[in-house]
Protein backbone atom coordinates (compact mmCIF):
# COMPACT_ATOMS: atom_id res chain seq x y z
CA UNK A 1 0.00 0.00 0.00
CA UNK A 2 1.37 3.43 -0.88
CA UNK A 3 2.08 5.69 2.07
CA UNK A 4 0.03 8.86 1.77
CA UNK A 5 1.22 12.03 3.44
CA UNK A 6 -1.68 13.90 4.93
CA UNK A 7 -1.47 17.42 6.29
CA UNK A 8 -2.41 17.61 9.94
CA UNK A 9 -5.38 19.90 10.37
CA UNK A 10 -5.42 22.29 13.31
CA UNK A 11 -7.86 21.38 16.07
CA UNK A 12 -9.89 23.45 18.51
CA UNK A 13 -7.35 22.39 21.16
CA UNK A 14 -4.53 23.99 19.09
CA UNK A 15 -6.54 27.23 18.86
CA UNK A 16 -7.35 27.19 22.58
CA UNK A 17 -3.68 26.50 23.44
CA UNK A 18 -2.55 29.62 21.54
CA UNK A 19 -4.14 31.93 24.12
CA UNK A 20 -1.61 34.43 25.41
CA UNK A 21 1.17 32.83 23.33
CA UNK A 22 0.81 33.14 19.55
CA UNK A 23 -1.60 35.53 17.80
CA UNK A 24 -4.35 33.51 16.07
CA UNK A 25 -4.77 34.29 12.35
CA UNK A 26 -8.34 33.98 11.05
CA UNK A 27 -9.96 34.95 7.75
CA UNK A 28 -13.36 34.33 6.22
CA UNK A 29 -13.68 31.99 3.23
CA UNK A 30 -16.69 31.04 1.17
CA UNK A 31 -15.39 28.96 -1.76
CA UNK A 32 -12.78 26.31 -2.59
CA UNK A 33 -10.21 28.27 -4.64
CA UNK A 34 -10.04 31.13 -2.12
CA UNK A 35 -9.88 28.67 0.78
CA UNK A 36 -6.88 26.93 -0.80
CA UNK A 37 -5.10 30.29 -1.27
CA UNK A 38 -5.75 31.38 2.33
CA UNK A 39 -5.25 27.99 3.99
CA UNK A 40 -1.42 28.00 4.25
CA UNK A 41 -1.53 31.36 6.05
CA UNK A 42 -4.47 30.95 8.42
CA UNK A 43 -4.98 29.07 11.67
CA UNK A 44 -8.74 29.23 11.29
CA UNK A 45 -10.97 29.76 8.26
CA UNK A 46 -14.44 31.02 9.08
CA UNK A 47 -17.29 30.31 6.70
CA UNK A 48 -19.05 33.40 8.00
CA UNK A 49 -22.69 34.21 7.38
CA UNK A 50 -21.23 37.45 6.03
CA UNK A 51 -21.34 35.35 2.83
CA UNK A 52 -24.94 36.60 2.51
CA UNK A 53 -23.77 40.21 2.19
CA UNK A 54 -20.37 39.71 0.57
CA UNK A 55 -21.23 37.09 -2.04
CA UNK A 56 -25.03 37.08 -2.37
CA UNK A 57 -25.63 40.85 -2.10
CA UNK A 58 -28.07 40.66 0.82
CA UNK A 59 -28.52 43.80 2.98
CA UNK A 60 -27.70 41.88 6.20
CA UNK A 61 -26.96 38.34 7.39
CA UNK A 62 -30.56 37.79 8.54
CA UNK A 63 -31.60 36.21 5.22
CA UNK A 64 -28.84 33.58 5.24
CA UNK A 65 -30.12 29.98 5.26
CA UNK A 66 -28.80 26.61 6.46
CA UNK A 67 -28.55 25.53 2.82
CA UNK A 68 -26.30 28.49 1.97
CA UNK A 69 -24.01 27.80 4.95
CA UNK A 70 -23.79 24.11 4.07
CA UNK A 71 -23.04 24.73 0.38
CA UNK A 72 -20.28 27.25 1.17
CA UNK A 73 -18.97 25.11 4.05
CA UNK A 74 -18.60 22.13 1.68
CA UNK A 75 -16.73 24.27 -0.85
CA UNK A 76 -14.32 25.64 1.78
CA UNK A 77 -13.65 22.14 3.15
CA UNK A 78 -12.61 21.07 -0.39
CA UNK A 79 -10.04 23.89 -0.51
CA UNK A 80 -8.69 23.96 3.06
CA UNK A 81 -6.18 21.37 4.24
CA UNK A 82 -4.61 22.53 7.45
CA UNK A 83 -6.71 25.37 8.90
CA UNK A 84 -9.50 24.68 11.35
CA UNK A 85 -12.77 25.32 9.49
CA UNK A 86 -15.61 26.90 11.47
CA UNK A 87 -19.07 27.39 9.92
CA UNK A 88 -21.50 30.05 11.16
CA UNK A 89 -24.92 28.94 12.36
CA UNK A 90 -27.36 31.22 10.51
CA UNK A 91 -30.04 33.39 12.11
CA UNK A 92 -32.97 31.23 13.25
CA UNK A 93 -31.06 27.94 13.39
CA UNK A 94 -30.15 27.84 17.11
CA UNK A 95 -32.02 30.49 19.14
CA UNK A 96 -35.27 28.56 19.76
CA UNK A 97 -33.99 25.71 21.96
CA UNK A 98 -31.19 23.20 22.54
CA UNK A 99 -32.70 20.52 20.30
CA UNK A 100 -32.97 22.80 17.27
CA UNK A 101 -29.44 24.03 17.93
CA UNK A 102 -28.07 20.48 18.08
CA UNK A 103 -29.96 19.20 15.02
CA UNK A 104 -28.78 22.13 12.91
CA UNK A 105 -25.20 22.09 14.22
CA UNK A 106 -24.96 18.32 13.65
CA UNK A 107 -26.33 18.76 10.12
CA UNK A 108 -23.72 21.43 9.36
CA UNK A 109 -20.90 19.25 10.71
CA UNK A 110 -22.05 16.06 8.94
CA UNK A 111 -22.77 17.67 5.57
CA UNK A 112 -19.71 19.93 5.40
CA UNK A 113 -17.09 18.02 7.42
CA UNK A 114 -16.17 21.24 9.29
CA UNK A 115 -14.62 21.01 12.75
CA UNK A 116 -16.74 23.57 14.67
CA UNK A 117 -19.63 26.00 14.45
CA UNK A 118 -19.96 29.65 15.50
CA UNK A 119 -22.95 31.12 17.31
CA UNK A 120 -23.70 34.79 17.90
CA UNK A 121 -23.82 34.39 21.62
CA UNK A 122 -25.95 36.76 23.57
CA UNK A 123 -26.22 35.55 27.19
CA UNK A 124 -29.38 33.62 26.20
CA UNK A 125 -27.24 31.29 24.04
CA UNK A 126 -25.14 29.91 26.92
CA UNK A 127 -27.53 26.96 27.27
CA UNK A 128 -27.21 26.08 23.60
CA UNK A 129 -23.39 26.34 23.72
CA UNK A 130 -23.16 23.99 26.73
CA UNK A 131 -25.66 21.57 25.13
CA UNK A 132 -23.66 21.43 21.87
CA UNK A 133 -20.23 21.12 23.50
CA UNK A 134 -21.44 18.28 25.79
CA UNK A 135 -22.65 16.46 22.66
CA UNK A 136 -19.44 16.81 20.65
CA UNK A 137 -19.91 20.06 18.76
CA UNK A 138 -17.12 22.59 19.39
CA UNK A 139 -18.55 26.12 19.51
CA UNK A 140 -16.98 29.51 18.89
CA UNK A 141 -18.91 32.37 20.50
CA UNK A 142 -19.45 35.83 18.96
CA UNK A 143 -20.12 38.82 21.21
CA UNK A 144 -20.23 42.62 21.09
CA UNK A 145 -21.58 43.76 17.74
CA UNK A 146 -23.75 40.83 16.69
CA UNK A 147 -24.71 41.34 13.03
CA UNK A 148 -27.72 38.99 13.28
CA UNK A 149 -29.24 41.49 15.78
CA UNK A 150 -29.04 44.36 13.24
CA UNK A 151 -32.81 44.89 13.27
CA UNK A 152 -32.91 45.32 17.05
CA UNK A 153 -29.83 47.55 17.04
CA UNK A 154 -31.01 49.67 14.07
CA UNK A 155 -27.68 49.27 12.25
CA UNK A 156 -24.17 47.90 12.62
CA UNK A 157 -22.99 49.91 15.62
CA UNK A 158 -19.95 49.45 17.88
CA UNK A 159 -20.85 48.10 21.32
CA UNK A 160 -19.80 48.78 24.91
CA UNK A 161 -19.80 52.57 24.75
CA UNK A 162 -22.15 53.00 27.72
CA UNK A 163 -21.77 51.35 31.13
CA UNK A 164 -24.91 49.27 30.59
CA UNK A 165 -23.70 48.04 27.21
CA UNK A 166 -20.24 47.34 28.63
CA UNK A 167 -21.75 45.18 31.35
CA UNK A 168 -23.82 43.36 28.75
CA UNK A 169 -20.79 42.55 26.57
CA UNK A 170 -18.81 41.34 29.61
CA UNK A 171 -21.78 39.16 30.61
CA UNK A 172 -21.88 37.72 27.07
CA UNK A 173 -18.17 36.90 27.27
CA UNK A 174 -18.47 35.20 30.67
CA UNK A 175 -21.56 33.24 29.61
CA UNK A 176 -19.92 31.99 26.37
CA UNK A 177 -16.66 31.03 28.11
CA UNK A 178 -18.36 29.35 31.09
CA UNK A 179 -20.60 27.39 28.70
CA UNK A 180 -17.50 25.90 27.03
CA UNK A 181 -16.83 27.98 23.90
CA UNK A 182 -13.33 27.12 22.65
CA UNK A 183 -12.82 30.71 21.42
CA UNK A 184 -14.84 33.92 21.23
CA UNK A 185 -15.08 36.47 18.41
CA UNK A 186 -15.32 40.00 19.83
CA UNK A 187 -16.70 42.42 17.25
CA UNK A 188 -16.81 46.22 17.32
CA UNK A 189 -15.71 47.16 20.86
CA UNK A 190 -13.14 49.62 22.25
CA UNK A 191 -9.66 48.45 23.22
CA UNK A 192 -10.07 48.63 27.00
CA UNK A 193 -13.16 46.43 26.92
CA UNK A 194 -11.50 43.90 24.59
CA UNK A 195 -8.46 43.86 26.92
CA UNK A 196 -10.61 43.35 30.03
CA UNK A 197 -12.50 40.45 28.43
CA UNK A 198 -9.32 38.87 27.02
CA UNK A 199 -7.70 39.00 30.47
CA UNK A 200 -10.76 37.52 32.15
CA UNK A 201 -11.82 34.58 29.98
CA UNK A 202 -9.75 31.42 29.76
CA UNK A 203 -10.42 30.84 26.05
CA UNK A 204 -8.83 32.92 23.27
CA UNK A 205 -10.55 36.03 21.96
CA UNK A 206 -10.48 36.81 18.24
CA UNK A 207 -11.10 40.45 17.43
CA UNK A 208 -12.73 42.18 14.48
CA UNK A 209 -12.77 45.92 15.08
CA UNK A 210 -11.81 45.11 18.66
CA UNK A 211 -8.16 46.27 18.79
CA UNK A 212 -4.84 44.45 19.16
CA UNK A 213 -5.74 43.50 22.74
CA UNK A 214 -7.38 40.26 21.52
CA UNK A 215 -5.61 36.89 21.27
CA UNK A 216 -6.16 36.81 17.49
CA UNK A 217 -7.66 38.73 14.60
CA UNK A 218 -10.26 37.98 11.94
CA UNK A 219 -11.18 40.03 8.87
CA UNK A 220 -13.71 39.52 6.12
CA UNK A 221 -11.37 38.47 3.30
CA UNK A 222 -13.20 40.48 0.64
CA UNK A 223 -12.67 43.66 2.75
CA UNK A 224 -8.99 42.86 3.33
CA UNK A 225 -8.48 42.30 -0.41
CA UNK A 226 -10.10 45.63 -1.31
CA UNK A 227 -13.04 44.22 -3.26
CA UNK A 228 -15.43 46.94 -2.08
CA UNK A 229 -15.37 50.74 -2.43
CA UNK A 230 -16.24 51.20 1.24
CA UNK A 231 -14.80 49.33 4.19
CA UNK A 232 -15.21 49.91 7.94
CA UNK A 233 -12.56 51.92 9.88
CA UNK A 234 -11.06 48.77 11.43
CA UNK A 235 -10.20 47.10 8.09
CA UNK A 236 -6.68 47.27 6.70
CA UNK A 237 -6.59 46.71 2.93
CA UNK A 238 -3.76 44.46 1.82
CA UNK A 239 -4.69 44.60 -1.89
CA UNK A 240 -6.82 46.62 -4.28
CA UNK A 241 -8.53 43.80 -6.15
CA UNK A 242 -11.55 45.84 -7.24
CA UNK A 243 -9.17 48.01 -9.33
CA UNK A 244 -7.32 44.96 -10.68
CA UNK A 245 -10.58 43.22 -11.62
CA UNK A 246 -12.13 46.34 -13.22
CA UNK A 247 -8.98 46.94 -15.27
CA UNK A 248 -8.87 43.29 -16.36
CA UNK A 249 -12.57 43.30 -17.37
CA UNK A 250 -12.12 46.57 -19.31
CA UNK A 251 -9.04 45.22 -21.13
CA UNK A 252 -10.89 41.98 -22.03
CA UNK A 253 -13.94 43.88 -23.28
CA UNK A 254 -11.70 46.09 -25.41
CA UNK A 255 -9.87 43.08 -26.87
CA UNK A 256 -13.15 41.34 -27.76
CA UNK A 257 -14.64 44.47 -29.35
CA UNK A 258 -11.51 45.14 -31.40
CA UNK A 259 -11.10 41.42 -32.29
CA UNK A 260 -7.70 41.22 -30.57
CA UNK A 261 -9.02 38.32 -28.49
CA UNK A 262 -8.83 35.43 -29.15
CA UNK A 263 -5.48 35.51 -30.99
CA UNK A 264 -3.43 32.69 -32.50
CA UNK A 265 -2.11 31.66 -29.08
CA UNK A 266 -5.64 31.05 -27.79
CA UNK A 267 -6.94 29.30 -30.93
CA UNK A 268 -6.96 25.55 -31.73
CA UNK A 269 -5.35 24.68 -35.06
CA UNK A 270 -5.92 21.65 -37.21
CA UNK A 271 -3.62 18.85 -36.01
CA UNK A 272 -0.91 17.87 -38.55
CA UNK A 273 -1.31 14.18 -39.44
CA UNK A 274 1.14 11.96 -37.44
CA UNK A 275 2.89 9.63 -39.92
CA UNK A 276 3.54 7.08 -37.10
CA UNK A 277 -0.15 6.76 -36.37
CA UNK A 278 -1.94 5.05 -39.19
O1 LIG B 1 -19.84 36.29 9.35
C1 LIG B 1 -18.68 36.66 9.54
O2 LIG B 1 -17.89 36.84 8.61
C2 LIG B 1 -18.26 36.91 10.90
C3 LIG B 1 -16.98 37.65 11.09
C4 LIG B 1 -17.22 39.08 10.84
C5 LIG B 1 -16.39 37.39 12.42
O3 LIG B 1 -18.94 36.57 11.82
TrEMBL record:
Provide the GO MF annotations for this entry. 3-methyl-2-oxobutanoate hydroxymethyltransferase activity; magnesium ion binding; methyltransferase activity
Q: Which BP terms in the Gene Ontology apply to this protein? A: methylation; pantothenate biosynthetic process
Query: Any binding details for the cofactor?
Result: Binds 1 Mg(2+) ion per subunit.
> Can you tell me which residues bind 3-methyl-2-oxobutanoate?
49-50, 88, 118
Q: Which pathway does the UniProt entry assign to this protein?
A: Cofactor biosynthesis; (R)-pantothenate biosynthesis; (R)-pantoate from 3-methyl-2-oxobutanoate: step 1/2
Question: Could you say which cofactors this protein requires?
Answer: Mg(2+)
Under what name is this protein listed? Answer: 3-methyl-2-oxobutanoate hydroxymethyltransferase
Species per Swiss-Prot/TrEMBL record: Hyphomonas oceanitis SCH89
Amino acid sequence: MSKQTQTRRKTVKDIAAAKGKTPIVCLTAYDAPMASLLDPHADLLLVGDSVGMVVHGLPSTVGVTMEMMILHGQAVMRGAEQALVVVDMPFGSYETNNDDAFLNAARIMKETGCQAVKIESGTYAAGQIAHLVERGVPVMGHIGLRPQAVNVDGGFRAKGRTNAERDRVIAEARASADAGAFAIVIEGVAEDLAAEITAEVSCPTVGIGASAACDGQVLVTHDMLGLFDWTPKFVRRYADLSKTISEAAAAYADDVRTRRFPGDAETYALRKPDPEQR
